[in-house]
């Protein structure tokens, strides 16, 4: 069984539970983004991709403006914010 997922420099490790929680937060954020912006979700895989990329973007934006939080609710809120920004930017590029 896989116990750790290691980054390139081997100092960044994420256990399997954290990775699954990260994916779950991403899926929830992607689904909520779909509900807010379209009135329905984008589909399971698209929700996951949008949410995971949005999590990274939201984390960067939160650090940039000085926001911080702890816990799953804060993680979902930051991921949701990043996901909404991501979908908005993608919409601008698409036009």
From TrEMBL:
<protein>
    <submittedName>
        <fullName>Transglycosylase associated protein</fullName>
    </submittedName>
</protein>
<dbReference type="GO" id="GO:0005886">
    <property type="term" value="C:plasma membrane"/>
</dbReference>
<keyword id="KW-1003">Cell membrane</keyword>
<feature type="transmembrane region" description="Helical">
    <location>
        <begin position="44"/>
        <end position="66"/>
    </location>
</feature>
<comment type="similarity">
    <text>Belongs to the UPF0410 family.</text>
</comment>
<feature type="transmembrane region" description="Helical">
    <location>
        <begin position="72"/>
        <end position="93"/>
    </location>
</feature>
<keyword id="KW-0472">Membrane</keyword>
<keyword id="KW-1133">Transmembrane helix</keyword>
<dbReference type="Pfam" id="PF04226">
    <property type="entry name" value="Transgly_assoc"/>
</dbReference>
<dbReference type="InterPro" id="IPR007341">
    <property type="entry name" value="Transgly_assoc"/>
</dbReference>
<keyword id="KW-0812">Transmembrane</keyword>
<feature type="transmembrane region" description="Helical">
    <location>
        <begin position="19"/>
        <end position="37"/>
    </location>
</feature>
